[in-house]
Predict the structure.
Amino acid sequence: MKTVILGHAGADFDCVASMAGLSRLYAGAVPVLPGSLEPNVEEFLRLYEGRFRFVRMPAPTLLKEDIGTVVLADTIVAARLGEYKEVLSLPGIRLVAYDHHEPNSASLAHIDEGHIRKCGATASLVTAVLREQLIPVNPDEATLLALGIYEDTGSLLFPETTAFDVEQAAYLLKAGASLSMVARYVTTYLVPEQQTALETALNNAQVRTVAGAQIAFAIVHAERNVGNLSVIVHRLAQIIKAEALFLIYQTPQALYVLGRSDRLLNVAELLAPLGGAGRIHAAASILRDGTSAETAQEHIVSAIAARHTQWHQVVRDIMTPHPATVSQNRSAEQALQTMVNLGFSVLPVERDGRIVGVVSKKALEKTSLTRLQQKPVHYFLNTRIAAVPLTATVEELIQAFGTYNTGLLLVMEQDQLLGVVSRSDILRYLNSTAHPQNIVGTASVRVIARSDLDRLGGNDTAATLARIGQIGDAEENRAYLVGGSVRDVLLGRHPNDFDIVTEKDVSGIAAAVAKSFDTNVISYGRFMTHKVRIREREYDFAAARLEYYDFPGSLPTVAPASLMKDLLRRDFTVNTLAMSLSESDFGTIVDATGGLKDLEAGTIRMTYSDSFIEDPARILRAVAAQTRLGFTLEDGTHEKARDALELGLLNVRRNKRAQEEFKELLLGGRSVACIKALCFLGCGLIGLPLIPPRAAKVRLLSALEQGLQPSLNGLDAPRWVAPLLVWLGDIPSGELQEVLKDFGLGDRLASACRSWQRKERALRRLLEQGACKVSTAAEELRGIPLPVLSILEAHLAGLETTGPRDLLMTVLSRMDEPLLASGEDIVNLGIPEGRQVGLLLDQVRRLQLDGMIGSREEAVAYLCASKG
């Protein structure tokens, strides 16, 4: 049975190049050229005739062949195959597809093997597969593949271009691709017929306001397709200023619809019902069902009107909602400190709840005289308010920055401040290649499957998260799963914490979620967080926020922020990932800092340079994450951690947050690895005389990880105490007691651990002798604190002989046994209550420990004999 390779009608270089590459990948496969090709592709193939294995075969002829597999190149929409779409209906066909377009409603419902990746060109995808399979390409093939990449990425300049495309183009140049041929065929000149079509389109173009958006339509009626329609619509988009432009080209044979847009409208989604495909900014459709140009235009208008609420949210997506403001009566010094803490250069100023202007950091920094620093902010107020509406377009925002000559725009609605937009927000948006809600463009869009959420998080996890997303959508307050749970699911690990973030008021969302699941919500006002327990799992809800620290290690002060700024304030890039819970793009990953790349590389990288200075406890979290995930610290992060330690910022005795992180590190299953990693950093933990452990100490700490944890004599203690004692080693007992008290241990237990080394050493010698009675060892163990017992057990576990450890286990086991006789038994024998009763009971206990008596009868017999 044959394997055939098919591409879409009106094939461009990306389609034809992909077909050529796939013919190398699938040995013996037949690449059947579509019935129509772009004129520049036709010219190229005439020049290179015989150098590629393309065949031209009418669809009726192809349908008679014995076909087992169909490989689609540059499309997953059956309608785009033209007359060849009937091939997909053949019985028993195995369908394989290679495409860089995102699936939409017009896409095939079933593909047996899909190679779909969001990048600039399908030729990039095919080139990468050829490289992975170590299949070389000759200079002619390299040139054709390069043409596919360069044409579809606008010579690597279109917003959809990724580093992946550039990497494949570089490989093809090394393989001998001719840049002169690429330049010849990518730089397309219009022939007279095409120039006429362009002039007609310009003359017929009309710009309509549809749901607040400026949409241009150019309808052309012609006898035939003059070719290069994609070039014509590109030229139109360069000339006509609009948020989207559609060229509707009508011929007796077919209707061609081509769309281009800025970041506001997804033209691929608009044209999908018309059988179209493409990307957010560029898409096309070919209709052969008699649809008129006017009907197609009205369909597009209706689609835009139906979706304008979803799309017209540029400002809402990028602004920082509920921004910090300053009262006009606050001092200049206080306002300047607020700006420094929040990292703002401009702050809105309010009076009696109304915005009256803005104050800039530059203006306040001029108040160097002490008397001016104490003056109220209104002395430095700029009363010209740079206000923009929530419906402003990107172009209007850019224009407003120039008009007001400011770095901060206030998003206002009837004198109410909704949010602020900075120049950085706009630049970040314009530099992204995704829909605004994806925030940061990545090499490919990652989506977490619902099945993975249920497999790793437990049954109904996906349904619960989806319900939270629906509640957020209903409140027009998008919800995201953020942080460690997203990281863990992407790594195939079971998530522990489920943190939900929204940009607007989160309390309403948390309350609605609790009501939906018939449960309660617990609120923590200072940190703008709420906890909801759903099906035995806790979900933490928080509003997107900024954090700043008054001094290193202090508890953070929080302020409302956008999702982007919330992610950027987090500790490490792998923890800045978010997953959309909205119904429209559930599971889509938002990558704020390149966390996906670091996740793949196994790298722990700090999010911003002064992260460890603001919160030194993050050094401990970095070490814990490094060892738990098996990752490595990025070089810059390693150096910043060392710098913070050298500055003496990490005080685990006085800083309670750092202390709790340190305790978690010590009692984890990889505490030894964490200790080694800390020592490698230099270990400047203020308040603890920490010395890199020698081999013997490391062995003891390793044994503690696997150690016994019994509880004796009421002197129970947290598991972190034993490894802390070992690590501290030979410090004066008085200092040790103070350290343990600073770590929260009570006076009694801290005092009991003072001379732990002497006690543990004496017990070890006794057990190693092997000849001591169980009762003698038990007497020495009585009153020993649990951490010291844990260290003793770990020491014995490291011995070559098992005798001492077996003896310890016997002692501990017999100490747990109930006494075989009671004081009542002794009194019943006629012995009066008093000191002798206690002495007899002690003797029974010793005999029982040493195995001399094993039942109550034997105990009573001994007591009777003692009486006599």
In short: Residues 244 and 261 are 4 Å apart (CA to CA). The chain has a mean pLDDT of 83. The two ends are 104 Å apart (CA to CA). The longest helix spans residues 293-311.
